[in-house]
Write a structure and sequence with these properties.
about 900 residues; mainly alpha; five-stranded parallel beta sheet; disordered C terminus
């Protein structure tokens, strides 16, 4: 994890490094009781490179990937369009949400010849009780009265709808469950004799009449479900709708609140632009603080709550207090009619979720409903309210909603209001409630970078010794870079604890959830100290345990998707700190593609990818990613992450020899000072230390090598004092690779005391100076190239490379290229081209191989250098040419041909 070396004169050691105290060897290197590995006595000549970590499963991050999500906004429309143009069955049954179905059908019709007849038939109570009532629009075109018998009706309409040699008319049927059976029979027979292309659309397959369902089973009608969009597909759709780059943070929030619905996502994006929730900064659309806007398609106002019938009002109050509820449960308790009425008026929404159909009101509506409960009504509901909400759940839910949409400041103010009201009417009289509220407020303050305030909230809580708050305090200490305090906090939490938070309504925490969070925080602390092997063991263990829960089908009961993304963020920090670049990139891509709905996690993953690109030599790509992340972080997000984004930008700009000659450090300081959210003093926790390294590297390229070395060694000394031994190692290693070879003894000590993937190569590098062995230098550079750090080999004028023979330089370049191919850039197939690829273009073959290799659309776009929308377009062409339905069938096709190729 070091930059490309550049020529730099050596600096006298005595000017930059103070002599260590004589009793330094007696001082413990590990913070507190941390188990670590001290290898300072190991010879550099026997050091070995630590291999890359085995692939992680990560299925727990995005469970249920069973094809019930659309990878492209046009997927259903393209499938229906093929049917309408005669390339499929004689019709289709389209299911899904109403707005999405309509958009799909209209999009497919746009590709049909304008001369083709299109008829729209609608079911209704009248059509359900009147023979052929739904066919009125067709029957009105006949020159004579239609016969009463079904076969006569079919014959008469067949002649009317299509003459020999012409395309069949398109008949679109809605609310088919409210159409009389004889009409359904006539339509089914017309479809079978190819007189019409029948398109039936409804919410669920169970609403399809028996005759039409039979045609679907026979293959005469194709079933097309307009599934919700994946987060990646939603991101692409938003960029198309808004006409520009959209931050991942913004697209995740809008995807979550639209439940992946194409229709609602488009409408919500437009509403956010009008309200100012979406703003354009530096050519990127970002999400600003504040509540999401009310939908412009909303119906009755909740201000008239008191005028609603009693049961309608009771249903709204339950949804406001309890949050989303299953439609099946509400129907079972007798609220079917009220659900229909309130949904028709636009007061509540019914959405399709992976767990079923849910009834809900938005957080804005919930606040209005709760505020509209009059005192008399409140007293009347007092027992019910207390049972449903013991004084804190509604506040906690509202605060979490605000944090999830980038309005952490609003959540903090909400907690302040609760505190002021507690004197007259305590809202959280239970210990459980106090723990919930303290935890949530601390989380909200940490999101805005107020670590002092977050810790103060925990200290004020009478239950600060509880497991939940103990883990939260440890996480804050890690964010500060105070590993000793973090590990001390974690030591007080029993490994098999089962806290008192499993009460009814307290589903925000489970014993396992706290357990997983505690272990992920411990892994972060160990990775930044001197036990990277132990940290990676914890990461592997977490992945296996969560995968086991996912296999059992209880992962959502153990840990919510949102909180799984929090654990994944910690694992991401560990992998990056331990130099596991390939595994780190894979996890970051999984977070970006996951359906967890955590916008802070995707923003962090985007930033980590930018850092990886910068460290491995892809500076243009890194600068673009960092600029997009910085645009969002300037509005909302952790200030410490903003510092890293700005540091990456400064580092990448310095490499391009900016003619303005601006000092990178001044660029960062000016940006930070001009931003009210930026932290006054940078923290080395999480990736704050990496921001310092990027800034030091750019200082050397723009200002002076002396200033760079001084800044790097100041970071190393500060890290050593705080017990951040991995950070000390990276700082010393980078200074050494810039030509400060007099640091060889310190590099050998720090490399031997850590177990990152580059510790072994750095130990060899130090040995090449201490033992004056050029072969050790070549072996160390070869290991760095194999680890994916091609940037080390970019400039052969480096002091470390100037004496290497040209043959060794060529071999290093070949090793680096092979590492790049292992990282996902290889698209050629060394075993030749299988038969099923014959009809594909070169680009389609490339994308097919990447799909078979398990890459997501976002990963394919990054590897191939094209947009996600272009990838989706190529995939549609691939599936059409090969007559496949999706990724799973393409993978099976490739696997089926693999044995034949191996045999040949």
């Amino acid at each position: 994890m070091q930059p490309s070396p550049t020529p730099s004169p050596s600096i006298a050691p005595e000017r930059l490094v103070t002599e260590p105290p004589s009793d330094e060897q007696d001082q413990p290197r590990r913070p507190g009781p941390t188990p670590g590995i001290n290898l300072t006595g190991r010879s550099a000549s026997v050091a070995a490179a630590i291999p890359d970590l085995a692939p992680l499963d990560l299925s727990w991050l995005d469970p249920g990937a069973d094809g019930r999500w659309m990878e492209s906004p046009d997927e259903a429309a393209l499938a229906l369009g093929r049917i309408l143009t005669g390339h499929g069955a004689g019709g289709a049954i389209v299911t899904g949400e109403l707005g999405d179905r309509r958009e799909t059908i209209e999009s497919a019709l746009s590709g049909v010849s304008p001369d083709r007849a299109v008829f729209r038939l609608h079911g209704s109570p009248f059509a359900a009780t009147t023979p052929y009532g739904a066919l009125a629009i067709l029957l009105s075109g006949l020159n004579e009265a239609p016969p009463a018998q079904i076969h006569g009706m079919v014959r008469a309409l067949a002649e009317y709808l299509r003459s020999p040699g012409e395309q069949p008319a398109i008949v679109i049927v809605s609310q088919a469950d409210q159409i009389d059976p004889d009409t359904i029979t006539v339509l089914a027979q017309l479809s079978q004799i190819n007189r019409i292309t029948l398109i039936v659309h409804c919410d669920r397959p169970t609403e399809v009449p028996v005759d039409l369902a039979a045609l679907r089973r026979l293959g005469a009608l194709t079933g097309i479900t307009v599934w919700p969009l994946t987060p990646t597909a939603s991101h692409g759709l938003l960029e198309e709708v808004l006409g520009g780059t959209v931050s991942r943070f913004a697209s995740t929030v809008l995807w979550q609140h639209s439940s992946g619905s194409v229709h609602r996502l488009r409408q919500l994006a437009r509403d956010c632009v009008v309200s100012g929730k979406l703003r354009r900064i530096d050519s990127s659309w970002v999400l600003a603080p504040g509540p999401l806007p009310r939908s412009t398609s909303g119906g009755a106002s909740t201000a008239v709550l008191r005028d609603l019938p009693v049961r309608h009002r009771a249903l709204l109050e339950m949804l406001a207090i309890c949050g989303p509820m299953r439609v099946a449960d509400l129907v079972h308790t007798g609220f079917a009619a009220e659900l229909d009425d309130l949904e028709d008026d636009g007061v509540l929404e019914i959405r399709n979720d992976h767990s079923g159909r849910l009834a809900l009101v938005t957080s804005v509506q919930a606040a209005e409903i709760l505020a509209a409960i009059e005192p008399d009504r409140h007293r009347e509901l007092s027992s019910t309210l207390e049972a449903l909400d013991p004084g804190y759940l509604s506040v906690l839910r509202a605060a979490q909603d605000l944090v999830a949409i980038g309005d952490a400041e609003g959540a903090i103010s909400l907690f302040s209001e609760v505190g002021r009201a507690s004197d007259s009417r305590p809202r959280a009289s239970l210990a459980t409630g106090r723990i919930h509220l303290a935890w949530a407020e601390s989380q909200a303050r940490a999101v805005v970078g107020d670590l002092d305030g977050a810790e103060a909230v925990i200290r004020r809580s009478p239950e600060q010794s509880s497991a939940v708050l103990g883990v939260q305090a440890a996480a804050l200490s890690v964010a500060r870079g105070d590993l000793r305090e973090a590990l001390s906090r974690l030591e007080t939490i029993s490994a098999d604890h089962r806290p008192e938070l499993l009460d009814a309504g307290g589903a925000y925490f489970t014993g396992e959830a706290v357990h997983f969070r505690a272990r992920s925080v411990r892994a972060e602390a160990l990775a930044m100290a001197d036990d990277q092997a132990g940290a990676l063991d914890l990461v592997v263990s977490l992945d296996r345990e969560l995968t086991a829960f996912r296999t059992l089908g209880i992962i959502n009961d153990v840990l919510s998707p949102y909180d799984r993304a929090v654990v994944a963020d910690s694992m991401l920090t560990v992998l990056l700190t331990c130099d596991q670049t390939q595994r780190c990139r894979e996890l970051a891509e999984a977070i970006l593609a996951g359906r967890h709905g955590n916008p802070h996690a995707v923003l962090y993953a985007d930033l980590v990818i930018a850092a990886l690109d910068a460290m491995t030599g892809f500076r243009d790509r890194a600068a673009l990613g960092a600029s997009h992340a910085a645009a969002q972080l300037e509005v909302t997000g952790r200030p410490q992450d903003l510092q890293l984004a700005l540091a990456i930008q400064a580092y990448c700009a310095s490499d391009r020899n900016d003619p303005s000659g601006v000092d990178a450090s001044r660029l960062l300081d000016a940006r930070a000072e001009g931003h009210p959210r930026a932290a006054a003093a940078s923290s080395l926790g999480r990736l704050g230390w990496l921001a310092e390294l990027f800034l030091a590297w750019s200082t050397g390229e723009i200002h002076s090598t002396r200033a760079r070395t001084a800044r790097i060694l100041a970071l190393a000394d500060r890290a050593a004092a705080d017990g951040l031994y991995a950070v000390e190692f990276y700082a010393v290693a980078s200074a050494f690779q810039f030509g400060e070879t007099w640091l060889a003894p310190r590099l050998a000590e720090t490399a031997a005391s850590t177990q990152t993937r580059t510790s072994g190569s750095s130990l060899l590098m130090a040995g090449s100076v201490l033992e004056d062995d050029q072969d050790l230098l070549y072996r160390s550079l070869e290991q760095l190239a194999a680890a994916g750090y091609a940037a080390h080999l970019e400039r052969i004028s480096s002091p470390l490379l100037k004496d290497l023979p040209q043959a060794q330089m060529r071999r290093l370049a070949e090793t680096a290229a092979a590492a790049g191919r292992r990282g996902g850039a290889e698209t050629e197939d060394p075993e030749g081209e299988p038969d099923w690829m014959v009809e594909l273009t070169r680009r389609e073959k490339e994308i097919s191989r990447l799909v078979v290799a398990g890459k997501s659309n976002a990963m394919i776009a990054r590897i191939s250098g094209i947009s996600i929308r272009t990838v989706e377009g190529h995939l549609y062409q691939i599936y059409a040419k090969l007559q496949l339905k999706g990724r799973a069938e393409l993978t099976r096709l490739a696997a089926a041909h693999a044995p034949q190729r191996n045999a040949s």
